[in-house]
Amino acid sequence: MKRLVYSFIFASLVGMSSCNDFDVPVTDRLTEEDVWKDETLVTGALANLYDKLQVEQNSAYFEGWDVWNVSLTTASDEGTGAFQAGDLGTGDVVRATFNDEWFGLWADTYKSIRGCNVFLEKLEASAMEEKLKNAYNAEARFLRAFHYFNLVKRYGGVPIVTDVQSYTGPEDLPALQVPRDKEQAVWDFIINEVDEITSELPVSRDANSRTRITRYGAFALQSRAALYAASIAKYGEVQLNGIVGVNNGDADKYWKKAITASDSVINSNQYSLYNKYSDKVENYQKMFLEKRGCSEFIFYREFQAVDKGHSWDLLNVPFSFVQNGYGCGQNPTLDLIEAYEYKDGTSGKLKLKDNSGNFIKYDSPLDLFKDKDPRLRATFYLPFDNCRGGIVEIRRGIYDPSIAGNDKFVTSGNKDEYYKNSQVKILGKDGVWDTGDVGKTGFYTKKFSDESITNIVGNYSEAPWPIFRLAEMYLNKAEAAMELGKSGEAEAALNEVRRRADIRELSGEVTLERIRNERRVELAYENHRHWDLKRWRTAHIVLADFPTNALYPWFVWGENKYIFTTGKAPKPNKVFQTRNYYVKIKDDDMSSNPMLGPNNPGF
To answer: Keyword set for this entry (predicted)?
Structure first.
C-alpha cells in the first residue's frame, strides 16, 4: 500500500534514501551497501527507532507550566496538579473543559512510521543473513504497529502507510494526499501484524538486549489492542461511515483475541508477578524501582542518569522535601484513594465517623488507613507517612472542642502561624492549604519515587517505565472473559492480581465493575485510566462535572488525636465532552491534506 500523509511530507524530504534517517553515524569510508551488511550499524538504526517510540511515560509531559494539568493522569479522575497555574489547574474558574487537541501526536508519529518503513525497505534489499533479517523485520514491524496503536486510540481511523514514498515535486502531491482508513481496519492491522511477526521474535532477550521487544511483548500489544477494539465495538458508535468506531457485532471476536493473546503471555513461563519481598507494601513499591527490569515487566523503558534520566523525583517530591523549586506533582484525588478496598474486600470508603455520626478520633493519621489494600501506601504518601527520613506532615488545622459550633475547626492563611502561643503550627508543613503550590488533596505520589536519590535535581531519576507488565495481562483477560460471560475465567485471572496484593480473593462475586476497579488501583498512575474511561465510553459520565475532592486531617487540641473531614480542593471541576473521545486532527494537518476530512465528530 503506497501511501504518505502530506501533513508531514515537508519534514521528510531530506535523506529519503540515506541511512541518516536513523541518525546512524556513517563516514565517507562506508557506502550505504556496507552499512546494511553491518549488524552493529543496523542495530544502531533500530535503536533510534526504539528511541522515537512514544510510550507515554509521565516524564514525556514534563514540559511547560501546564505540566501537571495536561498529563494523562490529571486529565482523568486519578489526580490533579498541585500548581495553581494551567488549564485544569487554574483555581479561578469553576469548570475547565478538555482541550480538543491534548495528547495529539499526528505528525511526529507519522515521521516515526516513515522511519520504520525506510528501515524495512533498506533491510529487505540488504545482504544480511536471512534469519537475522527476518528478526529485524519483525522488530521494526512491531514498532510500527505500536505507533499505529498510539494513533488509532486517539484519532480513530488514520491512513495506514506501509511503504516509503518519494517526493520529486508538487506534481506528486495529488497521489500522496490519501484518505483515512476506517478505525476497525487500523485495529485489525495492529492485531494481524502481531500474528505475522511473533514467530520471528525471540522468546527472551539476553541482558544486553533486555529492553528490546520479545515474542510475548508483541502478544502484550495484541492483548491491549484487541481489548480496546472490543470495548469500542461494544460501547462506542460507528460514525463517518466507519472512519471512527468498530462494528458492534465484532466485539466478541476481539474479546476472544484479547484472551488468547493474554494467555500467550501468561502461559509462556517467561514472567511472574513480582513477589520479592514479604512485606506487601514494600514489595509493590520496589517493583517500580528495579532499574533494570523485574520478573513482571514484559516490555519497558529504561533510564540512566543524567543524559537518559528523567525528573520524576524532582517533580513529585512532597512540599517540605523540595530541593530545587519544583515538586508536589500529581496529587491523587480522594476518589482514587477510596477506590482501594480494605484487605477483607469491603468498600474502600474511609471511616471518618461512627454509626452515631460522631467523628472517629485516631491516635495517628495513618491509623485511618489501617487494613487498607497494601498497594495504597505503596503508591501514595498518606498523611504523616514516612519520607526520606522525615514525616509528610499533612494537616488542615486544629480541631478545638472547647470552641462552640463550626469555629472548632481552626485553619489559617499563614503556614507559619502557631496555635494559642503553643509550639504547634496550625497547618502542616506539607499542607493542606488552598494557596501556593503545596499539595491540594491531602496526599502525594510515591509510585516511581526513589528515596535513594539524595540530590533531587532534573534527570537524576532512573525508575523504569513499564509499557507492558504481567498484571495487566491478567486484568485484560479478566475483563474480556467477563464481557463474554465467562465469570469463572474472569475470577481466576482477577484473583491472581488480588492474591499478590494480599487482599481477599473473590469467590462467586466477581463483576465487571470490580474488574474495572482492580485496573484502577493496580495500574494507577501508569497512564491507563485516561484511555480506559475513553474506551468504556464512561469519561463523559465520570468527568461530567468532576470535582477534585480532598481529605483534611485535623489535630484535636488537648487530646493528641486526629479527626478527618473532606472538602473540594481549589481546582475547577473537570468537564469531558463526548467529542473528546477522539482527538481533533489539527487544522494545519487537515488543510495540508484535504483527503483527511472530515475531521472527527464534533470538530
So the answer is: Cell outer membrane, Membrane, Signal
What is the rounded (10 degree) CA torsion for 528, 533, 539, 541?
-130
Looking up cell 497512564, which residue turns up? 527
pLDDT digits (tens, 9 = 90+) for 423-444: 999 999 999 998 888 999 999 9
pLDDT (tens digit, 9 = 90+) per residue, 63-120? 433 444 568 898 899 999 887 655 565 656 788 888 898 889 999 999 999 999 999 9
Beta-sheet strands, E only, within 75-129? 79-81, 95-97
What does each C-alpha distance from 249 to 120, 209, 261, 476, 502 come to in angstroms? Answer: 35, 41, 20, 20, 38
CATH code, 6-65+104-270: 1.25.40.390
Compute the distance between CA of residue 192 and CA of residue 329 in angstroms, rounded to an integer. 39
Task: Please tell me what DSSP assigns to residue 568.
Answer: E
DSSP three-state, residue 76? coil
On the CB side of 77, how many CA atoms lie within 13 Å of its CA?
25
Please give the helix or strand (H or E) that residue 386 lies within, else none: strand 386-387
What are the domain boundaries of the chain?
Answer: 6-65+104-270
Angle, alpha carbons 343-262-301 (nearest 5°): 85
Q: Do 494 and 349 touch, CB atoms closer than 8 A?
A: no
